[in-house]
Amino acid sequence: LMTSVKMMKAMMGAREAKKFEKEAKQELKKMLDAQKTDYDRRIAGYKRNKDACDEAAFKLMDFSADAKIQLEEFLATFNPDSDKQLELLVALGFVTAGEKHQQDMAQAMANGHYRECAQ
Fold first, then answer.
1. Among 62, 81, 106, 110, which one is most buried in terms of CB atoms within 10 A?
2. Torsions phi, psi of 48, nearest 5?
3. Is the dihedral of CA 104, 106, 109, 110 positive or negative?
């Protein structure tokens, strides 16, 4: 934010840059407040449905279906490069299915695996 303000001062002048800084800080505060509200809502949702969420998460992690979480299963689930980690967050209610889909699409595009629009 401060880098942007410095650039704006150089381009617009001090008064306009000060106005820009004030507006940017207000927008940042709104965004952070919205994120906090969303975070609190997701935690409350997890707590309301804790048993069901935990059961879904356990089933997701128990690849071998032996009613135990093996070290390999745990590590595979919590590997940041694993699809299972995002699935776990969905099972726990911390990420929505729509958000997961968006991340999957962004990852596919980053990897060069995307469909071009038919024209």
1. 62
2. -65, -35
3. negative
